[in-house]
Each structure stands twice: as C-alpha cells, then as structure tokens.
C-alpha cells in the first residue's frame, strides 16, 4: 500500500496554540522554520550562544533572542537547529539541564539521536520535522505560497501528542503544502546522508566538475563547458522535478534521448552503484558518522582544505562571470554573509 501523505487538510496549528517554540540556532534551517512559523501565527523565540554571529540577524528579523539555556527554559517545543556534530555539546551544556517533563525536543535531521550523541530523558517528546530541501528554499518557497515537502518522525512520545505537534510544525513551516511523510529517525538519517553524499551534493558536484574538466582538457572553451555541464543541468533537473525523467525526455531532442538512454548508463554504470552501496554501508554501520565527528573534533582540517580546493576549481570563476550576465539569477554572497541573511 502506498505511504500516507499528509497535506494541508490533515494539519492544524492548534497543537502549537498558546505554546512557546524555541528555535536554537538561526542558520539555514533555523531561520526558515522561525520565520515561516512566525508568519503562520506561532509564538517563536530564538536561542543562541553568547557571541553568536546569527544574533544580530535574528534580532533584525524581529525575534526576541535569548541565551540557549534561557530559551530552553521558556520553550514548550525546542527545535535544535545547530550543526549536527555540535548538538551533543549544546545538549549537555544548555539543553539537558533545562529539559523538564512535558517538553518536546524537535530535530530536522536524525543524526544526533540515531548516532546517540544525544540521549534524552524518557519523559520528553522527541520528534522530527525534516523539510526535504535547503533552509533557504524552505523560506523562499513559503513566501511564494509554495512548500518544500517534509518528513515527520516520532522517536518517543510520553505525551501521546507528538504526532499532532509534528504535523502542526510541518504545517507552520509550509511542508504540508508539498506533502509530508511519516518515517523513523533511522530511515531519515540513513537516506538523507546517502542522498547528500551520492546524488544530491557529492555525486552531482563531482559529475559536473568531471564533465567540465573533460571538455576543457579536450580544448573546448570553459564558457562552453560551463553552459553544457552546469547551467543547463538546472533546466534539465527542473523538467525532471516537474514531470519526472520521462517528462524531461519529452522536451529534449530525439538525439539527446538516444544519448541519454544509450550512453548514460555506460557512464553511471554498475561500478558507480557498487560504490553507492559501499557508502550506504558506512552510513548504516556508523563509520561515516564516527569519522565525521572525529574530523570536527580535530579542527576541520581536511574539511576546510577540500572546501577551499573546491572554491578554486576553474568552473567557479567561469561561472561567476557568466552568471553576472543573467540578472534574474539570485546573487548570493556566500562568502561574507550569514546563513540567515539570505532569503
Ligand atoms: N542546511 C539545511 O538545509 C538542512 C539542515 N538540516 C539540519 O538542520 C540542523 C541545522 O543545520 P543548518 O541549518 O545547516 O545549520 P547552520 O550551520 O546553517 O546554522 C547553525 C546555527 O546554529 C548556531 N549555533 C552554533 N553553535 C551553537 C550553540 N552552541 N548554541 C546555539 N546556537 C548555535 C549558529 O550560530 P553562528 O551563526 O554563530 O555560527 C547558526 O545560527 C542540522 O541538524 C542539519 O542536519 C536538515 C535539513 C536540511
Ligand atoms: C541535501 C543536503 C541536505 O540533506 C538537505 C538540504 O536536505 C542538508 O543536510 O543540507
């Protein structure tokens, strides 16, 4: 039987009525949930550490900002919107001491609970509302009257009201507009990590860079390589998003269709699937999480170096010049700005 999809008609904000929702962290997801909920009529406060770069942005957006511990004390529902590997430390220091019976702890990704960097007491609700999209798009789509689909999950439910709270939150951030599916913390964590490593971010970034390099190394202009391997990718993926792969094929030429079905599977072949399965295994057995936590605890050296190398890839310079000719493409000051200052 197909999974139940919760939509606008299944959701109500009533479970959040009269409640204080504390959003801890005001980055990509934090700012989107906070602003969308506020505009949906929910009472939202923000919790941040002293000296947080996000504090000024949250105040400018009209929120009351408290130190994290104080926000946890005031909140009935506490959304932990802090980077995954920092959640354990924030929980120990500021959340656990103020987490009393009846409160609800909410996550938008299951990493901390699934890999047990956080072990909450049995008398608080532990739930998830995970929009299936970047926070900036969760915010943008809400303002456009659209909604990023989302997942809800219930890890523990002493109040027996957790599902209603999760659905109300998903409704307030706009997810029920796009459809909401109920899952488990384990399933969300493992599939989300798999997607971002192999297809959505890792796989796509590597595929685009490899295609650009092959064309440039063969003597073609970098501008040609950019249009072919990055710019047009969005247009093709937009068509897939609108009508599936079969729908996208409706709009491309017969020759492109033949290249797609005949040559594509030779590029992304069984060996790629084998490596995807290996990546999934390391997610399932905890190896990926262990190594990632170690990387963050030892100063992010490899992480920072790899990101820096990525920024120096020639596709970035070529792309910046070509995008500047297209004023309708949103300019994003991702080097200087705060996550929450984009909309
Ligand atoms: N990015 C996304 O679109 C998605 C994220 N998620 C999940 O959402 C959660 C948050 O991730 P994301 O939005 O990317 O995070 P960001 O890195 O964008 O933002 C983190 C926020 O937490 C603040 N922060 C850092 N340390 C503390 C602390 N000790 N106390 C209080 N606040 C703190 C940061 O402040 P400062 O500005 O000072 O650094 C910043 O405001 C994670 O669980 C992630 O997996 C889920 C789906 C998608
Ligand atoms: C694809 C990356 C993501 O999983 C997301 C936007 O859903 C993330 O954690 O940022």
From TrEMBL:
The active site is at residue 109. One of its GO terms (cellular component) is cytosol. It catalyses: (2R,3R)-2,3-dihydroxy-3-methylpentanoate + NADP(+) = (S)-2-ethyl-2-hydroxy-3-oxobutanoate + NADPH + H(+); (2R)-2,3-dihydroxy-3-methylbutanoate + NADP(+) = (2S)-2-acetolactate + NADPH + H(+). Keywords: Amino-acid biosynthesis, Branched-chain amino acid biosynthesis, Isomerase, Magnesium, Metal-binding, NADP, Oxidoreductase. Binds 2 magnesium ions per subunit. Residues 3-183 form the KARI N-terminal Rossmann domain. Its cofactor is Mg(2+). It comes from the Bacteria. Substrate binds at residue 253. NADP(+) binds at residues 26-29, 52, 54, 135. Mg(2+) 1 binds at residues 192, 196. Residues 184-329 form the KARI C-terminal knotted domain. Gene3D superfamilies: 6.10.240.10, NAD(P)-binding Rossmann-like Domain. Pathway: Amino-acid biosynthesis; L-isoleucine biosynthesis; L-isoleucine from 2-oxobutanoate: step 2/4; Amino-acid biosynthesis; L-valine biosynthesis; L-valine from pyruvate: step 2/4. GO terms for biological process: isoleucine biosynthetic process; L-valine biosynthetic process. The keyword Cell inner membrane does not apply. One of its GO terms (molecular function) is isomerase activity. Its EC number is 1.1.1.86. PANTHER family: KETOL-ACID REDUCTOISOMERASE, MITOCHONDRIAL. Belongs to the ketol-acid reductoisomerase family. Involved in the biosynthesis of branched-chain amino acids (BCAA). Catalyzes an alkyl-migration followed by a ketol-acid reduction of (S)-2-acetolactate (S2AL) to yield (R)-2,3-dihydroxy-isovalerate. In the isomerase reaction, S2AL is rearranged via a Mg-dependent methyl migration to produce 3-hydroxy-3-methyl-2-ketobutyrate (HMKB). In the reductase reaction, this 2-ketoacid undergoes a metal-dependent reduction by NADPH to yield (R)-2,3-dihydroxy-isovalerate. This is Ketol-acid reductoisomerase (NADP(+)). It comes from Prosthecobacter fusiformis. The gene is ilvC.
């Amino acid at each position: 039987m197909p999974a139940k999809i919760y939509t606008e008609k299944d959701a109500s904000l009533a479970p959040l009525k009269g409640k204080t929702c504390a959003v801890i962290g005001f980055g990509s997801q934090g700012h989107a949930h906070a602003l969308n909920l506020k505009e949906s009529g929910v009472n939202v406060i923000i919790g941040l550490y002293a000296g947080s770069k996000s504090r000024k942005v949250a105040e400018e957006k009209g929120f009351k900002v408290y130190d994290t511990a104080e926000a946890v004390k005031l909140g009935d529902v506490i959304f932990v919107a802090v980077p995954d590997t920092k959640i354990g430390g924030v929980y120990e220091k500021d959340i656990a001491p103020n987490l009393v019976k009846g409160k609800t702890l909410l996550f938008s990704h299951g990493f901390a609970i699934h890999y047990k960097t956080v072990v909450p007491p049995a008398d608080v609700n532990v739930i998830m509302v995970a929009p299936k999209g970047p926070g900036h798009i969760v915010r943008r789509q809400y303002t456009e009257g659209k909604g990023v689909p989302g997942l809800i999950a219930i890890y523990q439910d002493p109040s027996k009201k957790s599902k209603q709270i999760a659905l109300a939150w998903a409704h307030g951030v706009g997810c029920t507009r796009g459809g909401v599916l109920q899952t488990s913390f384990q399933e969300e964590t493992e599939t989300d990590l798999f997607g971002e490593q192999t297809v959505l971010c890792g796989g796509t970034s590597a595929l685009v860079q490899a295609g650009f390099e092959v064309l440039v190394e063969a003597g073609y202009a970098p501008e040609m390589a950019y249009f072919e391997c990055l710019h047009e990718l969005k247009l093709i993926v937009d068509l897939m998003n609108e009508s599936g792969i079969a729908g996208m094929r409706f709009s491309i030429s017969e020759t492109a269709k033949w290249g797609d079905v005949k040559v594509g599977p030779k590029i992304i072949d069984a060996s790629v699937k084998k490596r995807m399965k290996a990546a999934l295994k390391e997610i399932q057995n905890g190896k990926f999480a262990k190594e990632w936590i170690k990387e963050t605890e030892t100063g992010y050296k490899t992480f920072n170096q790899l990101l820096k190398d990525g920024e120096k890839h020639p596709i970035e310079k070529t792309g910046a010049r070509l995008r500047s000719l297209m004023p309708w493409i949103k300019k994003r000051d991702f080097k200087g700005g705060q996550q929450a200052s984009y909309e």
